[in-house]
Design a protein that fits this description.
By secondary structure, this protein is α/β, with parallel strands linked by helices. The protein folds into two domains: about 300 residues, 3-Layer(aba) Sandwich (Rossmann fold); about 110 residues, 2-Layer Sandwich (Dihydrodipicolinate Reductase, domain 2), CATH 3.30.360. The chain is about 40% helix and about 15% strand. The strands form two sheets. Strands 3-2-1-4-5-6-11 form a seven-stranded parallel beta sheet, with helices on both faces. A four-stranded mixed beta sheet has the order 8-7-9-10. The protein is globular, with a radius of gyration of 22 Å. This is Inositol-3-phosphate synthase. It comes from Pararcticibacter amylolyticus. One of its GO terms (molecular function) is inositol-3-phosphate synthase activity.
Amino acid sequence: MKEYVEPAEGKLGILIPGLGAVATTLIAGVEAVKKGLAKPIGSLTQMGSIRLGKRTESRYPKIKDFVPLAELNDIVFGGWDVYEDNVFDAAMKAKVLDAELLRAIQPELEALVPMKAAFDKRYVKNLDGTNVKSFTTKKDLADQVREDIRNFKEKNGCTRMVMVWCGSTEIYQKEGSVHHSIAAFEAGLENNDEHISPSMIYAYAALKEGVPYVNGAPNLTVDTPALVELAKETGNPIAGKDFKTGQTLMKTIIAPGLSARALGVRGWFSTNILGNRDGLVLDDPDNFKTKEVSKLSVLDEIFRPEANPDLYSELYHKVRINYYPPHGDNKESWDNIDIFGWLGYPMQIKINFLCRDSILAAPVALDLALFTDLAKRAGMSGIQEWLSFYLKSPQTAEGLHPEHDIFKQLMKLQNTLRHMMGEDLITHLGLDYYQDLVESMH
């Protein structure tokens, strides 16, 4: 049965806390695509196809032609940052995209000036910005962000909005009593509770204003009972957490293959060097801890050592990230994987991924923005687990283990789209082709 999905009419505002390398690469990329200067490679919503019906029907439309997504020409960007640079200047400083490409879209980028950020240096010690809001209570700060959202919507004539966190990784935080209910959270805002982080203030403000929220960092943020409750109460989708881009992307591609072939793994050592603002922030041990927890959970969930002790009970998994300014946004990761096969004979896999962090993250951020807007128009609120495909540490319903296998995640995403549009779900069983053949022969 086809769900009712409201059409994507009017302008979609994409609001971004954190106009650094990822956000400026996303914004500049969309502007370049609009002008026909480049193609949106890596974006499933723009370049991906989906199979409908049986293989014999040969129906493979583009996803953007199958579901009613916002058009790139209807997107308006805005955001907050602790630095005052407009998006053109910020993109030039990030040094992700060529200056020649940025100059071709300079007027559009210069017009985007960040709003003052809701900032608390305790959560990101290695950043020193002056473009920050002053406030008395965190309730006051949340109200200021809500006012920013309303003003942006009115000024830009947006019919709908989404918020995508592209800001820094905050210090590691566990869920506390202030996060257990929306009543406790709102009392915490009034009382300046130290366990309410800036990202939570943005998320709260977005949800109160009817704006879906996507968490692109490993911060706790919406992964709490209070904000899940608020998302359901206000009818808003939420998705998180932590964009899956470089090394973890490789893990979720390779580990399922090893598991599928029942090959054992004794050790997986991962190290990275990174020189952008993300690398600077993660140079602080408290911030790295947040990222480490996000990155470490992946292999356990794919290999499930408790269910496969002969293959994975001795798995030693170590993750390192080192700040290395000369590399800038060009993150380099090395993986050493000690595997074993038939009769326990050892083998090794070595991966050296010379990736570009923001080039991989920008299309992920775009897809998450467009898909959460779609979810809102389809009446889907709360946790959107079908968007796990894009995330390192997928948020799930309480008591549910996340699915990290990228191929299963893709099947879940595509089947959600098929369900939304009243198409048959695809199981890849394939037996019916052969049963039909047998029946036709009798």
